[in-house]
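Hey all, quick one. A colleague (J.T.) asked me to put the hexanoyl-coenzyme A job into the tracker so the inputs and the C-alpha cells live in one place instead of scattered across chat threads. No bug as far as I know, just bookkeeping. Sequence used:
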Amino acid sequence: RSYKYISVDVDGFVALVELRRHQAHNALNLELMEELVAELERLDVDDDVRCTVLTGSTRAFAAGADISEMVDATAVEMKLRNQFRCWDRIRWLRKPLIAAVNGYALGGGCELAMACDIIVAGENAKFGQPEVNLGIMPGAGGTQRLVRAVGKARALEILLTGEPITAEEALQFGLINRVVPSELCVQEALRIAQVISSKAPLAVQLIKESVGKAYDSTLQDGMEYERNCFYLLCGSQDKTEGMRAFMEKRQPFFQGR
Ligand code: HXC
C-alpha cells in the first residue's frame, strides 16, 4: 500500500505508522489526515496487528493543522468541509495507539498525540496549543482532553498563552507517560507496543473501552460497564488459556477469542 503522506511498517503484531510530510513539520492537511485515519482503521481490523505506534520526524511529530488550508476559508466553508469527522474516527479505534513524539506536537499535533492511548516523548519534544496566536482555538479536543489530562489551571495556561511546554513539564503534568532520549523514543514506544501485543487481545480491547468509559460516565455507570466487560472476558478462550497457563507454570498462548 502506498501513501503520499504516511508510511507503514508491520513487524510481528506491531505496526509503525510514520507521518512523512517532513518539509512542513508534518502539518496535518486534509489528505494526510484522510490517509492516516484510513490506515489506522485498516490496521484496526487486521487480525495480525495488535498495537500501533504513531510517530513523526525527529524534528516534528506534527506542527498542527495545515494553516494554508484554513487561511482563506470562511466559517461556512470550514463547517461544510467537516474535517473533524475524520478526527472523530480515531476515538473509535479498538486497538491501542501509542504516540512516539519527537520535536513539535502543536495544535492539531498535540491533539493527535492526546487522541492516542499512551504518549512516549523524546527529550526534545514540545507540546502546545498555539491556536490562540492565530486568532482561533483548538477544535479537535484541545480544550477537552487537555483539561482532563492536566487539570484546569495548567490547561488554561497552555491554551491562553499559546506557549509550548517541554517534555519534562508534560511528564510532570501527567500529559504523557515517559520521556526518553530522543533517539530512543520510537524504540521505547515499539517496546511498549510489543508488551501489549503479547497480552490477550480481547482483554486489551475491553480495557481500552472501559477506560474510555471513565471519561464520560458516572462512577456507578463506569463500574457497571467494567463489570460486564469483565464477565464477557470470562467467557473467552483466552481466559481459559491464561489461567491454565498460570496454573501449569507456563507462558500463555493468546489467540484473541
Ligand atoms: C502549515 C506549516 C505549519 C502549519 C509549519 N509549517 N507548521 N505549514 N501549517 N501548521 C511549514 C512552514 O510554513 C514552513 O514552510 C515549514 O513548515 C517549516 O516551518 P518553519 O516555520 O520554517 O520552521 P521553524 O522556524 O523551525 O518553526 C517551527 C514551528 C513553526 C515553531 C513549528 O513552523 C510554527 O509555529 N508552526 C505553526 C504551529 C501552529 O500554529 N500550529 C497550530 C495550527 S492550528 P515553508 O514552505 O516556508 O518552508 C491547528 C488547529 C487545529 O492546529 C484544529 C484541529 C484540526
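Adding what we noticed when we looked at it: The radius of gyration is 19 Å. Strands lie at 6-11, 14-19, 51-55, 60-62, 97-101, 104-106, 118-122, 126-128, 165-166, 178-180.
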